[in-house]
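Late entry, 5'-deoxyadenosine complex.
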Amino acid sequence: MNNDMNRTENIDYFPVKDRASMMLDAVDITRDAPTEEPLRQYYYMAKLRDIVSRMAEAKGRPITADVITYGCQANARDSEGYAGILRNCGFEITEDETSDLVLYNTCSVRENADQRLFGHLGQMKVKKAKNPEIIVAVCGCMMQEKSNLEKIRRSFNVVDIIFGTHNMHMLAELLYKRITTGKKVSDVRENSMTIVEDMPFERKFPFKMGVNIMYGCNNFCTYCIVPYVRGRERSRDPEEILSEIRGAVSDGVIEVMLLGQNVNSYGKNLTQQISFAQLLAKTAEIPGLKRVRFMTSHPKDMSDELIETTAKYPKVCRHVHLPLQSGSDRILKAMNRHYTKADYMLLVKKLREAMPDISLTTDIIVGFPGETKEDFLQTMEIVREVKYDSAFTFIYSKRPGTPAARIEDGTPEEVIHERFDR
Ligand code: 5AD
Ligand code: SF4
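Prediction complete; structure with ligand written out below:
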């Protein structure tokens, strides 16, 4: 999945009319909180709606919230969920880091994303000194890393609420706790296999949206932190996915991007037999939907069935993002990628034979520990041969806790930078 390292642009969200607003209206806040989800969260949203409207009355202005997103499309989609929850709690969603509530949705795939968050939290100390009422919340992948979690708890007293990727549906409950007790709230959980459906969300664009079809990753590429911070792979029920898309189409959406760390292994943990290609076909058959995209495909799991389905349905965009990472078999093995250069090239050949006009994009890492000049030249050779439409190139970033972080590497930084520039 492409992790654009810039803060995802914040623009107005479009409220989605769906089951969520009906569920919120049905809540009885005079009773105890329900135990089952998502009803429990709707209960807290309704409670907060009351509190927030009283705050707005007292201040004579709307109570605002800013959701700041780092990282990949999965995080961007999660932020649409946070915006949906906060809007249901009565907040006005803004793009202003001096809002009454600021939520940072963090990314940990490379080190510079960590540094950016710390920079923002540093500035927040100054803002909070001026306005101590600002509520600062931090969530997302970085919170699932012990070292970062401890650093925030220790060094950033400005942070009021901390939660992770396994309880992202709990924002309203944690916020309610913070507001009603005045105490800091921190709730980060280990791996969870449950997916809470029917939570609210808001779309960033009126005509297109990302749809998570699965969460987590089981691949354990040796450089990558994602399996540790996002947990084991779990697929959403196909009917939930399709009904979400049908609802969005009736609301004006014409383009969807099916999202997952490795969409090609969709369905593996479900009891019913369904492949990603079958889900893609069912999506393409939804009337009114005009374009379907998907991301990311792991080369090791790209099936002939998926190539055929992509070719068969004109609605499916002829674009495959196929991360190469390295063109050297030795490095691919050290990365635990489970394909060779020859496997990859065969896949490219099959894709081009089935769809001569297909657009191919990729991710490449330079400077993986032990990468020699010869390894690097093999990557360059594939880049020349495939002629990608675009390539996201990353300098290897050591992620504590991953197997690659334990590999010694003496390659000078200038050499890695020179490879990156090439
Ligand atoms: N260092 C550099 N790049 C990384 N990626 C993932 N982990 C790392 C890391 N530790 C890149 C991969 C992946 C993309 C989303 O980010 O190329 O495909
Ligand atoms: Fe990371 Fe590999 Fe999973 Fe992608 S497939 S998220 S690179 S472990």
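The chain is about 40% helix and 15% strand. Will revisit in the morning.
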